[in-house]
Design goal:
The protein is about 40% helix and about 10% strand. Strand 6, helix 8 and strand 7 form a beta-alpha-beta unit. The N and C termini lie far apart (about 55 Å). The protein has 2 domains: about 90 residues, no CATH class; about 210 residues, Aldolase class I (TIM Barrel). It is of the alpha/beta class. The protein has a 5-stranded parallel sheet with strand order 4-5-6-7-8. Strands 1-2-3 form a 3-stranded antiparallel sheet, with no helix packed on it. The protein binds iron/sulfur cluster (SF4). Iron/sulfur cluster binds next to loops.
């Protein structure tokens, strides 16, 4: 049966083309809303009942009829917006997100040549620690000096030569990777902003037309207007350490004088969002370190606090560790 709305008809056709099989995810629900765990990327997407019902029907026989029934139930506009978001995530954001394919890496385990080739030409990401220094003194930090067999923070910083060796390795070993990522981890990488600028310009030059992601794990305490402008201009992906609401975050994430960092982090998040809401929506994610006592109802709302209302987004989770 033909759909009345031409826009929706086009979106349904596109969805049937992109999702010839169901996408790979697991759905779960909290008291607040449904979520989708994307199994290929480890990301958690917040959604609503309409988004989830469309995801559940995608890639299965009768999707077009299902979309028509939904449109009659909730309206064409809502179905179109939800489909646009799903298609945007599946096609624009990260090619692995909402993918119908299992990760290719599974095949390499039993095939030495393929594994070798993957290491030589299909490196997915390289993460460097440009400095051991940090302006915070989080109680659970592995550099806090409170853990056995671990040193405390030092001011040791990666040399330009070492950074360039890592960058050259990245360029040489990602020749066949669709969207490789070069990441900065810490310590606190914004303390060596020059290294980030240098790496961004180096890869912009040496990667030529190949796409890549720059990622930065940050406590977001030290961020300046110049840094925000730079991150926006270059589409740098920020993974911001945020453990939950103020009373959760400030238990562990503190300045050296013991005072909490939540208010400053939230102010700086506002500055980024005010500078460029689209950048904020697409390139800012959060990393929550779960430390006892852990209550999921304390942590999960953080992810949607700053979402600005989209029904599907990649707010609050990553499979990367915080420290
Ligand atoms: S921001 Fe990260 S590196 Fe710095 S003290 Fe906290 S956990 Fe450690």
């Amino acid at each position: 049966m033909a759909l009345d709305n031409a826009v929706m008809e086009g979106l349904v056709e596109e969805a049937e083309r992109v999702f010839d099989r169901p996408p790979r995810y697991h759905a779960f629900r909290t008291a607040r809303r449904p979520y989708v765990y994307d199994t290929n990327t480890g990301r958690i997407l917040s959604t609503d009942s309409l988004g989830l019902s469309l995801l559940e029907a995608l890639g299965k026989p009768g999707f077009s009829r299902f979309a028509q029934d939904k449109a009659r139930e909730v309206g064409d506009d809502k179905v179109c917006v939800a489909l646009e978001k799903i298609l945007g995530l599946a096609t624009d954001h990260d090619p692995r997100l909402l993918s119908t394919e299992a990760p290719e890496i599974g095949r390499y385990c039993s095939n030495h040549d393929a594994y070798r080739h993957a290491l030589d030409a299909k490196l997915e990401q390289l993460c460097v620690v440009p400095t051991n220094a940090c302006d915070l003194d989080c109680h659970y930090c592995i550099y806090s000096g409170k853990h056995k067999n671990r040193t405390g923070h030092t001011t040791e910083t990666m040399t330009r030569n070492t950074l360039e060796s890592a960058l050259a390795y990245f360029v040489a070993h990602t020749a066949e990777t669709e969207l490789p990522a070069f990441g900065f981890y810490g310590g606190e990488p914004t303390l060596v902003f020059d290294q980030i600028k240098h790496a961004t310009s180096y890869l912009g030059r040496e990667m030529g037309n190949r796409k890549f992601n720059m990622t930065l794990n940050t406590n977001l305490v030290n961020v300046t207007d110049e840094m925000i402008d730079f991150f926006v201009e270059h589409g740098t992906n920020l993974f911001i350490s945020l453990d939950g609401p103020k009373h959760v975050h400030d238990r562990y994430r503190v300045f050296p004088d013991g005072s909490g960092t939540s208010s400053l982090v939230m102010d700086n998040l506002r500055r980024i969002r005010d500078r460029d809401a689209v950048y904020y929506e697409r390139h800012v994610s959060f990393l929550a370190t779960l430390a006892p006592p852990v209550w999921s109802h304390d942590v999960i709302p953080v992810g949607t606090t700053w979402a600005g209302g989209p029904c599907l987004d990649t707010r609050n989770a990553s499979n990367q560790p915080c420290v």
